Every structure is written in C-alpha cells, then in structure tokens.
Amino acid sequence: MRIGLRTGGALAIQATDLTLAYQQQPVLWDVDLEVPQGVLMAIVGPNGAGKTTLLRAVLGLLKPAAGEVLVFGQPYADQRRRVAYVPQRGSVDWDFPTTALDIVTMGTYGGLGWVRRPGTSERTRAAAALAQVGMESYADRQISQLSGGQQQRIFLARALVQDADVYLMDEPFQGVDATTERAIVELLRALRADGKTVVAVHHDLQTVTEYFDEVTLLNVRRIAGGPVDRVFTEENLRLTYGGRVAGIGGRAVGNDLEPSS
Amino acid sequence: MTSAQIDVLLVAVVVAAACAIPGTFLVLRRMAMMSDAISHTVLLGIVLAFFVVADLGSPILIVGAALVGLLTVVLVEATSRTGLVREDTAIGLVFPALFSIAVILISSLAGDVHLDSDAVLLGEIAFAPFNRFAPFGVDLGPVAIWVMGAILLINLACTALFFKELKLATFDPALAAALGFSPALVHYGLMALVSITAVGAFDAVGSILVVALMVGPPAAAYLLTDHLPRMLGLSVLIGATSAAGGYWLARLLDANIAGAMATAVGIAFTLVLLLAPRRGLVAAARRRRRQRWTFARQMLLIHLATHEGTPTESDESHPDHMQRHMRWPADFSARVIQTATDRGLVVLEAEQLRLTPHGREAAKEAAVR
C-alpha cells in the first residue's frame, strides 16, 4: 500500500450517515463508510445486513433516505467513469443471446455515451481484458455455455475494461472454484499495485485477513471499520453476527447493537 | 393474384416485420405478456383521441394510443410495486380495466362511428386494400402499407441507433444505470415502440395477431440462435413467412385471414420447437439417446479396466456377467458389447471380453472426466 495515497487527497469513497429503506423498512441505518485510496476492502456481515444495498447506494442505483455518498470528494454522477461495478453473477440472465467478448465490451459503453457504437478499438480493449482474466480462448463462446467461475471472470474483465479507479464487487468469490478464486485474488492484488481501490462484499470469514487490507463489518448499522488487523476481531464479529461468530445466516437484529468503533 | 391480394399480403408482411423487432426485446426481457396488455389498451387511446379530433384518419390517434400504452406500463408497474400483487397479476388487472373502459365508451358514445370492438380483436385485413392513400387524387396504395411501413422504419431506426443501449439495459439494467444509461428511459422508449406498433398493426390485423406476431417469431428465433442481431433478423423472417403462409392458408380454407396468420405463427413456432438444430426437442431426444449409449459403453470399459489383471478377471469379463453387474436387459447388454466391439474398444476371446489398447485409453479418459 502506498502511504502517500492514504494521507493525501480525498477518500476513494466516503459515505456519511447513510440511511436506506425499502418500503419504510430500514436496510441501512446511519452508516458511515470510509474507503482510503489504494486498499482492498471487504464488506462483511450476515445475510440481510445491507451489504449489496450499500454498494448499490454508492453507485447511485438507490436513493438514500438520508446521508450522502462522495466518490473522490464528489457525487457519483460526476465520477461515473472512475467507478466500475461487478454485480452478483446471479443478477443477470446468462441465457441472453450473446458472446463472452460482447459482454466484456459492455464495459466500454460508459466511455462511448449514447448512440455511438463500439468499434475496433473497444473490441481490442475487451479482448485484452479477457486475456487478463485468462479467458481469451472463450471470446466467441456463448455465455450460457460458460461455467460459473468463467462467468465471474467475464464480469471481472468487463469491469477491468472500464479502466476505473474504484472497483465495487458484489461477492466476486461466490460459487467459483479454487483456481478461479486464486486468479481473482491475483487480479485484486494487481489492481492494488496499480493504485486502484477495491471494495468487495465478501462472505468467507476465513479468507478476510488473507485477501483484504481493510474491512467494514455491517449489520444494518456499521459495527466497525478499518484495517483488518485492528478491526477484524472476535468481539466485533460477535457484535456483527449476533453471538454466532461462525454462523452464516444468523440474522441478528442490528438495531439492538451498539457500534463499537 | 389480384392487386388487392398483393396489397393484403404486403400489409401482412410489413406488420409482421414491424412487430418482430420490439417483440424480440419483450421476449428477452420476459415481458411478452405486456404486448397482450398494450395491444388491447391502445384502443382506449384511440377512442379518447377520437373524441378530441373527431377524425378516424388522424395521426393524433396514434399519439393517443401510444400514450395510453405507456399509461398501461406505468399502472402495471405501480400496481406491482405495492408488493401486494405480482407483475403478471397486475397485467391481468390493468389491461381488462382500460380495455373495458374503451369498449364502454365505444358502445355508449360512439355508436354511429366505424369503431367496433369485434374489429379490434381480429381486425379486418381483407379491407385494408380498400382504404387507399391518395393525396391529390394520386393513388399510392393502401393507407395501411404507408402507416405500417413508417412504423417499421421507426422501429428499425430506433433499434439501430439504440442497439447498444437496448442490449445493455436488457442484459444488465444495474450496470446500465451505473454507466449513466437510464434503464427506465430505455424501458419506456421500448414500450412506446410497442405501443405505436400495436396501434398501427391492430387497425389492420387486430390485437390477437399483434400478440402472436410480437411473441411467436422472437420465441422461435431465440431457439435458433445465440446471436442478438441474428435473432432480430430471424424474428422478422419467421414473422413475415408466417404472415404470408397464413394468408395462403386463409385462402385455402376460405377462413379469417388474421386467424389463419396467428395459426401459421403457432405452426412455425411448433416446428422450430421440434426441429431446432441444437435446442429442439428432437435434437435433445437424440442427444439423450446418444449419451445413454456412450455412458453404457464407458461403464463397460471402466468395469473391464478395473478388473484387468486381477484374480477375478475371468469371471468379471465374461459377456454374461455384464447384464447382471450393470443391471442391463439382455438385449441392451448384447448391443452395448456389439457396438464396443465394432468400434475396436474390446475383443471377445474365449468367452472373455478384453480391452484393446484403444479401449484402455478410452476407459482412462472416461474415468478422468
């Protein structure tokens, strides 16, 4: 990690007092999120803790009931080009009639704007991103014929082609095999080495300290956040998961918990 | 063919092509039933616009119809967003409500006008040639061709211009929004195309055929290709062919033309469902059959390989042992052994099945996978 990036300049992402609700039911309650530049940050919490909602709020896909989100000190709408998004693999229909290369090319659409079509240079960049995730020989493959891990790599390639400064990833390790998981970790480290920032929703508590520099523990409220070695403690995990440290799916009542950090 | 028949055929083919384009995106977005709703509720727009302009030929009618088409989408979404009813239920609630308002208005207030609700459902394409487009007394063919030709061009132009946006917003609306392409705008744009297509088409062919032409050809094309531009092209082709085939069928049976065309769409889809090269039911059944034989052969090879060189080999490799061990019927067992022998995978020597080197290789390969 480059220390200079930490102290100087704006935070990559700064959310303050963020509150989001579906049908008047709070999903995030007064959440602060501070992501320094150039770190890999995990967002960890039980099911229903609001992890995906937090990412979607940063991306401006959901309108917060209160609070604000800044990306490099400015609203997201002014910083679109600096943010790439990797949604959950299951959020799209993989029977859609198109090829792997075409999906990756979608990452260039933001730079093209309305109406302009992707041309040779966009497709070349997409092919390079495919090669970066080791999928170059699958460029013309129909997307429904790819395995789960390969589909995840396609999504990562699509984010790489956006050439952003911040990468928001929703469970990039969900349902991938060990080889793909290692490849993704390599990729995250390469991004960090380039000074990029990654925020990933993560489910596997065993690998948090190995893969990430920073962690935000979330359960409707932010329980704790900061460098992994300081924040990823048993005490904080107990607060996050409601006494069941290893328990995935133990849905704690976040409103009863006091933030400890 | 008389010139009137050619006119009917032309109208039908143009309508089919115009419907197939927005229909493709409806099918991919799993919103096929929205075409059903919109193709009926546009009637309300026509009626309301007619009360304003009092002219059945006015293009304002199309605008009114498109607006009510969008209103249908808004109401369906508002109803399902309450979280109390699902979207398909919401469609079933909104569309009869708007449609019946239109029917009531027609029957009570516009009784003396040529706007009748039977024609709405089935249309009367046979009359299309009689309504001529003749500015300054020059006959330029049926009005329906000009109207539908214009709508087809609009659909083609919008799809070509916004192809990338339509594709992105259909495949991954969240990314579309994150990149600044409003998926809502794309959605309502598409619904506007569906609405003007429905209103233009339904005057000629009725709402049932609009639904058939918007859903059937794209559904068939989806089974034939993995490529979106090709899917659009095939949808147009299947739609146009069905329309022409339906017209021929109607003349053969002396039946209602729209009904025959909708039937032709159904026949075309059924043929594709059965015969599509990769996804068709016949291909799937053949694949399953082939897999069954391949699997049986692999079981035989792996069984022989496992016991090769063991003390029990002579028992385990006796041909009669296979049907007991694998629980195969006798004739099936005999055929598996026969095909394995034909392919040079095993040889029968002194009542013993032995793997050939080729067969040993195949057994190893099958076991690894």
Name some characteristics of this structure:
heterodimer; A: 261 residues; alpha/beta; six-stranded mixed β-sheet; three-stranded antiparallel β-sheet; 10 helices; 9 strands; 31% helix; disordered C terminus; B: 369 residues; mainly alpha; ABC transporter involved in vitamin B12 uptake, BtuC; Arc Repressor Mutant, subunit A; 2 domains; two-stranded antiparallel sheet; 16 helices; 2 strands; 77% helix; 2% strand; elongated
Topology:
The complex is a heterodimer of chains A (261) and B (369).
Chain A: H1 3-7, E1 13-22, E2 25-35, E3 40-44, H2 51-58, E4 66-71, E5 83-86, H3 100-105, H4 109-112, H5 120-132, H6 148-161, E6 166-170, H7 178-193, E7 197-201, H8 208-211, E8 214-219, E9 221-227, H9 228-231, H10 234-241
Parallel strand pairs in A: 3-7, 3-8, 5-6, 6-7
Antiparallel strand pairs in A: 1-2, 1-4, 8-9
Helix pairs in contact in A: 5-6
Chain B: H1 3-28, H2 32-53, H3 60-81, H4 87-109, H5 117-122, H6 143-161, H7 163-171, H8 173-178, H9 183-224, H10 228-253, H11 257-275, H12 281-307, H13 313-316, H14 319-326, H15 330-342, E1 346-349, E2 352-355, H16 357-368
Antiparallel strand pairs in B: 1-2
Helix pairs in contact in B: 1-2, 1-6, 1-9, 1-10, 2-3, 2-4, 2-9, 3-4, 3-9, 6-9, 7-9, 9-10, 9-11, 10-11, 12-15, 12-16, 14-15
In short:
The complex is a heterodimer of chains A (261) and B (369). Chain A has 261 residues and is of the alpha/beta class.
Question: Can you offer a commentary on this structure?
Answer:
- Chain A has 261 residues and is an alpha/beta fold.
- Chain A has helices at residues 3-7, 51-58, 100-105, 109-112, 120-132, 148-161, 178-193, 208-211, 228-231, 234-241, and strands spanning 13-22, 25-35, 40-44, 66-71, 83-86, 166-170, 197-201, 214-219, 221-227.
- In chain A, helix 5 (120-132) crosses helix 6.
- The two termini of chain A are 23 Å apart.
- Residues 1-8 and 247-261 of chain A have low confidence and may be disordered.
- Chain B is mainly alpha-helical and 369 residues long.
- Chain B folds into two domains: 3-279, ABC transporter involved in vitamin B12 uptake, BtuC; 282-368, Arc Repressor Mutant, subunit A (Orthogonal Bundle).
- Chain B has 16 helices and two strands.
- Chain B has helices at 3-28, 32-53, 60-81, 87-109, 117-122, 143-161, 163-171, 173-178, 183-224, 228-253, 257-275, 281-307, 313-316, 319-326, 330-342, 357-368; strands spanning 346-349, 352-355.
- In chain B, a hairpin with a 2-residue loop joins strand 1 (346-349) and strand 2.
- In chain B, helix 2 crosses helix 9 (183-224), helix 7 (163-171) crosses helix 9 and helix 10 (228-253) packs across helix 11 (257-275).
- Chain B is elongated.
- The model of chain B has no long low-confidence stretch (mean pLDDT 88).
- Chain A binds chain B through residues 23, 56, 59-61, 77, 80, 83, 85, 87, 91-93, 96-99, 103, 106, 109-110, 112, 114-115, 117-118, 142, 144, 158, and chain B through 28, 30, 83, 161-165, 167-168, 170-172, 174-175, 177-181, 222, 225-228, 230-231.
